[in-house]
Amino acid sequence: MGGDHGAPEVVPGAVGWAREHPADTVILVGDVPLLRTLAGDAPTNVEFVHGPEVVGMEEHPARALARKKLSSIRVATELVKNGQADAVVTAGHTGAGFAAAKLILGTLPGIDRPALAVQLPGAKPFLLLDIGANPDSTAENLAQYARMGSIFAERVMGVPNPRVALLSIGEEKGKGDARISRATELIDQTDLNFIGNVEGRDLTRFVADVVVCDAVVGNVVIKFFEGLASYILKDLLAGEFRRNLRGKLAYLLLRPGVERIRTAFDYEVVGGSPLLGVRGPMIITHGNAKRRMAWWAVDVGARTARERVTELIAESLGLAESAADAGDAAQAADGAAGPDHFSTSGG
Amino acid sequence: MGGDHGAPEVVPGAVGWAREHPADTVILVGDVPLLRTLAGDAPTNVEFVHGPEVVGMEEHPARALARKKLSSIRVATELVKNGQADAVVTAGHTGAGFAAAKLILGTLPGIDRPALAVQLPGAKPFLLLDIGANPDSTAENLAQYARMGSIFAERVMGVPNPRVALLSIGEEKGKGDARISRATELIDQTDLNFIGNVEGRDLTRFVADVVVCDAVVGNVVIKFFEGLASYILKDLLAGEFRRNLRGKLAYLLLRPGVERIRTAFDYEVVGGSPLLGVRGPMIITHGNAKRRMAWWAVDVGARTARERVTELIAESLGLAESAADAGDAAQAADGAAGPDHFSTSGG
Predict the structure, then answer these.
(1) What's the CA gap between B7 and B20, in Å, rounded?
(2) Is-above-0.90 flag for pTM?
(3) Comparing B344 with A133, which gets the higher pLDDT?
(4) Which of A68, A232, A301, B140 is the most exposed place for a label (fewest CB within 10 A)?
(5) Could you tell me if residue B151 is left (phi over 0), alpha (psi between -120 and 50 degrees) or otherwise beta?
(6) Can you list the positions of beta strands (E) in B77-114?
C-alpha cells in the first residue's frame, strides 16, 4: 500500500510476475477492494489478504506498527512468520520494514544486527551492504555482513565463490579505521573468499562481488551513486541533447548508445534489496518503485526464498545448537515442498 | 620530486604560476640541477633549494622522513617551519605529507587531528573533509573540521557565510550514528551556519558549501566520485563516440557540450587539497597531477597563505592563551609584509 506511487504501481508489477510464474502464488496485502480493482483480470495464483492500514512516512515505525495491527507491512510480515508466505516484499516506509522484520520475524540466532544489502548496477552488479539498517556497527557485525552477503551473492546472484571485500580508505589489507582492522582479522579466520580492502575507485571496477561497509558509508555511497549518475546522464548529458539542433541531431545518432549506458545504470532490475539476518526473506525495494521495479523486487523475494538464503545463513553461522529456534526461519525459507507464497506489501 | 609524473610536470606548472605572479616567489625544492634543467628559462622569482631525496610510495612515511634528512618534502616543510616560505605544496606521497606536517609543523593548539579537505567539482564546488588524514575521528574532531572548513571556504573559495553540513544517513538533523549525533550537538553550539545533515544524493545538489565527515566516508566518496565520473564519461560515453560512424558524427556535433560536461568535472582546477589544522599551509595535490593541476595547487597554497587561513583557524579556536605557541603559524601564514614564498615539493 505504501511507497511513492503506492498500490497503482506495485500491484500491476506483482500481478505481472504472478502471470509469468504460474506455479507460485503472489499474496497482495492491503485494501482488498482497491487491490482487486488494480489487479484487474488477475490470474488465479494471485491471492488477497486484508491489511488496509498504511504506515506514513512521518510516523515512528515501531510505534505505528504496534498501533496499526492491520497495516499491510505488519500483516504481510506475519504471513511469513506464520509460514503462510515465504517472503515479504515492500516498497513502503523503510523504517517500518526494518521494524516489522525485527519485531515480528526477529533476528537469526547469533546475529546481532541485520543488514540491508543492495545490488549496485554497472557492467557487472555487485552486492553492497550494509546500506542503512544498522548505524554504529561493530567489527563483528561487519564480519557477519560478509558471511550473509557471500551467501546471497552465491545463491541469488549466481556468483560462484564470491569475492568478499571491505570498503576502506586504502588498498592495503587491514588498512582503515579500528573497526575495519578488527573486521579484517575476523573475516581472515573464515573460509570466505576474502580479498581484503577495496577503495571507492574500485566500486566501478568490479573487483569484488560483495562489498562490506558500515551503514553510514554504504548509505552515502548508494545515494551518491544515484545522485551522480542521474546528474551526469539526466541533467548534464540530456541537457546537451536538448540544448539546440546539433544536440538533438547528436541524440538521434547516439540513441542506441545512450540506451546501452542507461541499461548499465538500470537499478530497477537489481532494486530488490534483501534485509539479511532476520528469520525469513524481507525484500525492501525503492520507495519510488514503479511496476517494473516491483516485478523485479518480487522476483528477488522469490529467489531468496527458493534458494533458502535465510536457512543457509543460519546454518553457516554454525549454530546447530539453536536449530530449534531457527525452525521458523527454515520453514519460511524452504519453499521446495510446494508452490511458493510471496506476500507483497507496501505499507 | 615525487608524484606519478614527478618534477617534469610539477616544475613547469609551478614555474608557469611564478611567471604570472611576479610579486611572489616560488621555491623549488629537490635535485637542483634537474630542477634547473626542467625550469628552463625561469623568471627571477623562481628559487632553488637542495633537497634531492624522494620518499618512495612503498616507504613508511615517518621513518623515511626521519632517515632522509634531504627529502624534498622534509626540506620544503622546514622552510615553512622556519618562516622562509609561507606554504608547502606537494604532489608526492600523501602519507609523507601528513607526516611532515605533523612532525615538522605540528598541529595547532587545541586541534587534536588535522583534516585533509578537497573541493569537489561540479556546477558549484564545495569543500569535503576529512578525506583521509584521520581515521577513527571523534565527534569533537568533526566539529573542528566544520570550523576549519568554514574558514577555508569563506577565505579561499570566496563563499560568504558558508553553509556547513554533516554527511549522514538521513536528512533529519542529528540522525546518523552516535558520532554524528554528538557532533550535531557540538556544532549547534557554535556560530557556524550549520544546516544539519546532507545525504549522499545531496552531494550533486549543491545544498551545502562545507560537508563534514569521517575519513573513511570522505575517502570513499572522493574516490568513488573520480571512479564513477571517469567510468561514465570516459569508458561508457567516449566508448559510444568511438564505436562507429554514427558515434563519431554525434561526437562532432556534441563536442562543445562534451567540453562543458568535462569542465563541470574538472578536478585539476580544484585539486589543491589543504591539510587543515597544522601550523602553516600544507597543500597536498593529486599524485597524478600534471602541470596544469600543479599550477592550481600552487595557487591554492598562495591563497591559503595570503588569506591567513592558518591564523584564522587558530584565532577561531579561541586560544588566545596559546598565542605565543601559535606565533610560528601566524608568521608562516601572514604573507602581507612582503613577497610571498611558496615552496613546491613532490617527495
Answers:
(1) 20
(2) no
(3) A133
(4) B140
(5) alpha
(6) 87-90
Angle between helix A139-155 and A291-306 (nearest 10): 100
Task: Give pLDDT tens digits for A15-55.
Answer: 999 999 999 999 999 999 999 999 999 999 999 999 999 99
- The phi-psi region of residue A274 (left if phi > 0; otherwise alpha if psi is between -120 and 50; otherwise beta) is beta
In degrees, to the nearest 5, what angle opens at C-alpha A75 toward C-alphas A74 and A80? Answer: 95
Whether residues A168 and B216 touch (CB distance < 8 A) is answered with yes
Closest residue, chain A, to B227 (C-alpha): A201
* DSSP element (H, E) containing B282: strand B282-284
Q: At what angle do helices A309-316 and A291-306 cross, to 10 degrees?
A: 50
Model pLDDT for residues B121-170, shown as the tens digit of each residue: 877 889 999 999 889 999 999 999 999 999 999 999 999 999 999 999 98
Q: Are A294 and A285 in contact (CB under 8 A)?
A: yes
The domains of chain B, with CATH numbers, are 1-111+277-347 (no CATH), 119-270 (3.40.718.10)
Lowest mean pLDDT among A97-111, A235-249, B6-20, B261-275: B261-275
The Cα-based distances of A88 to A48, A183, A263, A275, A302 in angstroms read 14, 31, 27, 10, 9
Three-state DSSP class for residue B151:
helix
Query: Quick check: B170 and B148 in contact, CB under 8 A?
Result: no
Question: What is the per-residue DSSP string for A63-99?
Answer: HHHHH-TTBHHHHHHHHHHTTS-SEEEE-S-HHHHHH
Read off the pLDDT of residues A229-274 as tens digits, 9 standing for 90 and up: 888 888 888 899 999 999 999 999 999 888 888 888 888 888 789 9
For residue B55, what are the contacts with CB-CB under 8 A and spacing of at least 6? Answer: B2, B61, B64, B65, B68, B71, B73, B92, B93, B96, B347
In DSSP terms, which residues pair with A197 in a beta bridge? A166
| Residue given cell 544498522 in the structure block | A134
For B78, the grid coordinates are 622546514
C-alpha cell of residue A259: 540506451
User: A343 with A79: CB under 8 angstroms?
Assistant: yes
CB-based contact B180 A216, cutoff 8 Å? yes
Alpha-carbon distances, residue B190 vs A172, B116, B149, B183, B186 (angstroms)? 38, 22, 14, 11, 7
Whether residue B232 and residue A236 make contact (CB cut-off 8 A), yes or no, is no
How far apart, in Å, are the Cα atoms of B163 and each of A109, B206, B240, B273?
45, 10, 39, 19
H or E stretch covering A153:
helix A139-155
Query: How many pairs of residues across A and B have Cβ atoms under 8 Å apart?
Result: 173
Q: Give contacts of A258 with chain B, Cβ < 8 Å.
A: 240
Query: B251: which chain A residues are within 8 Å (Cβ-Cβ)?
Result: 250
**Edge-to-edge strand order for the sheet containing B282-284?**
B46-50, B25-30, B341-345, B87-90, B282-284, B273-276, B115-120, B126-129, B210-212, B163-167, B193-198
Question: Residues near B250 by Cβ (< 8 Å), separated by ≥ 6?
Answer: A249, A250, A251, A253, A254, A257, B240, B241
DSSP A201: G
User: Can you point out the beta strands (E) in A94-243?
Assistant: 115-120, 126-129, 163-167, 193-198, 210-212
Compute the half-sphere exposure of residue B89: CA atoms within 13 Å on the CB side of its CA: 32
CA–CA distance, A268 with A295 (Å, rounded to integer): 9
Per-residue model confidence (pLDDT) at position A341: 61
CB contact under 8 A, A243 and B257: yes
Residue B154, C-alpha cell as written in the block: 569563506
The residue in chain B having the minimum alpha-carbon distance to the alpha carbon of residue A257 is B240
Q: How many residues does chain B have?
A: 347
Q: Which of A178, A226, A250 comes nearest B201 by C-beta?
A: A226
